[in-house]
Design brief:
This protein is mainly α. The protein has one domain: Na+/H+ antiporter like fold. Helix content is about 75%, strand content about 0%. It is built from 19 helices and no strands. About 50% of the residues are buried.
């Protein structure tokens, strides 16, 4: 290659073609496209391509190119987290009753607790040098608590469960879980960056003040903009530019505070007005490019960091199985038990637990944050990526086996959420 730009363009072409090709196979066997893109990233990384053709791997992905690929993928993630924020309709969190609150709380606290207990057992052998025990334990607890809202929404749509009572509860619980998990992650990031508990608390207070400003100042501004956009043609380039500037400023502010740019992008998406065509038209302009072009770069970068060769012995693979088991028992078990106690049928409770156990892309984002912070090692990162793959792969077949009762209709979903759920699937299907 004649320069870094030429190499980056070649990498993007190879990655996108591989992701779309494997994605077609994934859809054929009934799996979300995100699975294919994660697998494509791993296959292009040192785990396969690096073993089969080391020279080709070093030519396509020299270590000097990792910094550029990482930056581009991070920019893509900022816009993707904005889309995720748009997907999380706040109305999901209202009027669902005590049962949804209890189920959502169980879906966070039980896997968090089990993950923290396991983290304390493996801290001495698998934490990076210099990492505090509290940071390691908190991060592992959060990593076990993640639910992939976009994958869950897509699976519900494919199974025609979105408008059922169980599907509605699943969306509400996943939305609450994602919001809670990202707030906890923001605290952990601030805790790792800060020097001592007081500094971490100060960063947390700054983050809360930032969120308050976003809600009290920026949200009304966006609402006023939204009142002028009653049709897609009213979304002018000036309004799009202003929206992007505010989005990037929000991401920059959260990065400067010390809670990661992704948190600011996610928060900005959640405060976008849902009335009119403002958010919907903006999402339609963004999602194709972000989902088809940017996300595969992130998956490839994650694949380059996933080194199956690091799992060399029986103990490593046993720990990997233990991580998968703890993740499944914590998320599925906690949700299933509380759902049964609150009056849901056994099948619906099982289906809800299966849905909440899917992790997908959201887990990879959290794991990359942990690896970048130096909280987890490359070996533990690889184990957790495998956990995310297994828990996502098992969702659709297990959901079909549980045969939930889909006969009880719920309120129709918000039109923005319905539209995005049908299109945004962490690797959008493109008919050709």
């Amino acid at each position: 290659m004649h320069g870094p730009l030429s190499l980056l363009i070649l990498q993007a072409c190879v990655i996108i073609v591989a992701a779309r090709g494997i994605g077609a196979l994934a859809r054929w066997v009934g799996q979300p496209a995100v699975i294919a893109e994660v697998i494509a990233g791993i296959l292009l990384g040192p785990s396969l391509l690096g073993r089969l053709s080391p020279q080709l791997f070093r030519t396509l992905f020299p270590s000097a190119s990792f910094a550029g690929l990482s930056l581009v993928s991070q920019v893509g993630l900022v816009f993707f987290m904005f889309l995720i924020g748009l997907e999380l309709d706040p109305s999901l969190l209202r009027g669902r009753g005590v049962s949804s609150v209890a189920i959502s709380a169980a879906g966070i606290t039980v896997p968090f607790g089990l993950g923290a207990l396991l983290a304390m057992r493996i801290f001495a052998s698998h934490a990076e040098p210099g990492v505090g025990k509290a940071s390691f334990v908190l991060f592992m607890g959060i990593a076990m608590s993640i639910t992939a809202f976009p994958v869950l929404a897509r699976i519900l749509a494919e199974q025609k469960l979105t408008r059922t009572e169980m599907g509605s509860i699943a969306l509400a619980c996943a939305a609450a879980d994602d919001v809670t998990a990202w707030c906890l992650l923001a605290f952990v990031v601030s805790f790792v960056h800060a020097n001592g508990l007081m500094a971490a608390l100060l960063t947390t207070v700054e983050a809360m003040a930032f969120a308050a400003v976003m809600l009290a100042v920026v949200r009304p501004l966006l609402a006023r903009l939204g009142t002028h956009i009653t049709a897609r043609q009213h979304l002018t380039q000036n309004i799009v530019a202003l929206t992007f500037v505010l989005l990037l400023a929000s991401a920059l502010a959260s990065e400067v505070i010390g809670v990661h740019a992704l948190f600011g992008a996610f928060l900005f998406g959640t405060i976008m007005p849902r009335q009119g065509d403002y958010a919907r038209a903006l999402a339609e302009r963004l999602e194709d490019f972000v989902v088809v072009a940017f996300l595969p770069l992130f998956f490839a970068f994650s694949g380059l960091r996933t080194q199956l060769g690091l799992l060399a012995g029986l103990n490593d693979w046993l720990l990997c199985l233990a991580l998968i088991g703890v993740a499944c028992v914590g998320k599925f078990g906690g949700v299933f038990c509380v759902a049964r106690v609150t009056g849901m049928s056994t099948r619906d409770s099982a289906a809800l637990g299966i849905l909440m156990n899917t992790r997908g892309l959201m887990e990879l984002i959290v794991l990359n944050v942990g690896l970048d912070l130096g909280v987890i090692s490359a070996k533990l990162f690889t184990m957790m990526v495998l956990m995310a793959l297994v828990t996502t792969l098992m969702t659709t077949p297990l959901l079909k086996l549980s045969a939930p009762n889909a006969a009880r209709p719920a309120h129709a979903p918000h039109p923005l959420r319905a539209g995005l759920s049908a299109r945004l699937q962490e690797g959008r299907e493109v008919d050709s």
